Amino acid sequence: MGKINCSDDMLFEKTVSSKTVFEGRIFDVEVKDITTPEGRAAKREIVKHPGGACILPVDDEGFCYLVKQFRSPFEKVMLEAPAGKLEKGEEPLACVTREITEETGFVAGNIESVGAMAATPGYCSEIISLFIGTGLVYQGGDPDQNEYIATVKLPLKEALEMAENGSIKDAKTLVLLYKAARRFGI
Question: How many angstroms separate the CA atoms of 137 and 16, rounded?
């Protein structure tokens, strides 16, 4: 594919007005009236999210630790890397340091940032910071109230196979598994 000759300016939408139509515990919803690049009026519905952070714990033997958790939108249990929503003013590193222990019982001696991702940029402002945790020491977990999870220990290679065959569907976990594969030469 060749270079695309289109400046970003040709793609920008202009916000005319915006109104918050829902304020929730986890996110707010905003409706924006916009003008498209060619001048047409349109609306955008945006989920305003404070962001999150996700960590893939990997031990010295090459096992990773994921969590099983019921996800109401899908009415099923999903397998995911430990993650959490950023609290007001919280840095992503502090969030994953808290979440890895709450959800798996481990403390990571080394936490490496491996980037960030826009979870669903078509309608949601959530940015998830991604980390890999190594040098794991077990100290015992303490999930949040009303958070029911089970920790699953898998060889990283097997977790990658599950990502490839569609058994793992969570986007942040998929991205972290592929980044870990490169990081650990798998």
Answer: 52
Ordered structural domains, the chain, with CATH:
10-48 (no CATH), 52-183 (3.90.79.10)
Residue 11 is predicted with a pLDDT of 86
Backbone angles phi, psi at 148, to 5 degrees: -110, 110
pTM of the model: 0.90
pLDDT digits (tens, 9 = 90+) for 46-67: 999 999 999 999 999 999 999 9
CB 108 within 8 A of CB 135: yes
